[in-house]
Design brief:
Layout lengths: L1 H4 L2 E3 L4 E2 H10 L4 H9 L8 H13 L4 H20 L2
Helix pairs in contact: 2-3, 2-4, 4-5
């Protein structure tokens, strides 16, 4: 788990998984507003899937770092494929 805590979950806000957990844990805001604290971007959809899943995990109290890491990797692969097709 420790190996994933420092992984960047959203490049827009340059926040790690650990920082995102701290932000989501300390906020009572709904997802849409809490994500802005992590991404620092109004319209960021680049990291939507891993952030939304992490938000749900924080709310439930059970965080699966491996799943979040997999979602981040899938997002990164999708970004690379999209850039190749441009």
């Amino acid at each position: 788990m420790k190996e994933f805590e420092d992984k960047i979950i959203c490049e827009c806000g340059d926040k790690s998984i650990k920082q995102a957990i701290e932000i989501f844990s300390s906020s009572s805001l709904p997802y849409k507003k809490a994500k802005k604290l992590v991404t620092q971007c109004e319209h960021a959809a680049c990291c939507r899937v891993p952030l939304m899943r992490l938000f749900d995990m924080v709310r439930s109290g059970k965080i699966d770092y491996h799943e979040i890491n997999l979602l981040i990797e899938q997002t990164d692969i999708k970004k690379c494929n999209d850039q190749e097709n441009v």
